[in-house]
Amino acid sequence: MRAESTWARAAPTADRLVLVADLGATAMFALEGALAAIAAGLDLFGILVVGFATALGGGIIRDMVIGAGPPLAMRLRRYPIAALAAAAVAIALAIPAREIPEGILVALDAGGLALFAVSGARRALDFGLNEISAALLGALTGVGGGVIQAILLNRVPAVLVEEIYASAALLGAVTMIVGVRRGAPAGPMMALGAAVCFALRMVGWWQGWDLPTVGY
Predict the structure, then answer these.
(1) Pick from 132, 125, 23, 11: which is nearest to 73 by CA?
(2) 38: how many CB neighbours lie within 10 A of its CB?
(3) Which residues pair with 210 in a beta bridge?
(4) Alpha-carbon torsion angle 64, 66, 71, 75, nearest 10
(5) I need a labelling partner for 116 at 20 to 30 A (CA). Which of 124, 194, 198, 211 fits?
(6) What's the confidence (pLDDT) of residue 73?
(7) pTM of the predicted model as reported, rounded to 2 decimal places
(8) What are the sequence ranges of the domains in the chain?
(9) Is the pLDDT score of 85 beyond 90?
């Protein structure tokens, strides 16, 4: 598709960083979503649907909120291709062995969460949003796919329970935004923000950290 290749060649560095982070998150979330669907006993079509929705939901929500026109996931064929390819890999790898370690699912989810958090915040800054709005949109981008997946699998979304999840995405987005606003290069700060988010999510899961609840 000519429009897609022309956009990719003409995109500024910031757009390319967002694109790379988006595609990485898309593949990770698609793989994690498909594996979760396999563990839930869905059929092949259901696995592909859950993987696709998990991978692309957050980015679509992000682009709709900032008014970026048709979402990138709908304009560029590489997004659905990456999502469906990753889901197909999950099917090929997981059908012989249905026991999927929880740590693998959490790590894939944390990776997608981290990359989407920083790409969402970066794209929001590029569209002129203030720092607070950009941080919130980064977190929304990160958790959007997981919320859709939980709804499809009839589960309570992790963002609504005590787990360290949305707060990890928010901290990763804030880390990136603070660095960029202080003049640091976008690439290293996106990597640092993603690393902060990933580490907090994984350590929180490993140690069983929970956010406080309010009792009545």
Answers:
(1) 23
(2) 23
(3) 163
(4) 150
(5) 211
(6) 86
(7) 0.85
(8) 13-207
(9) yes
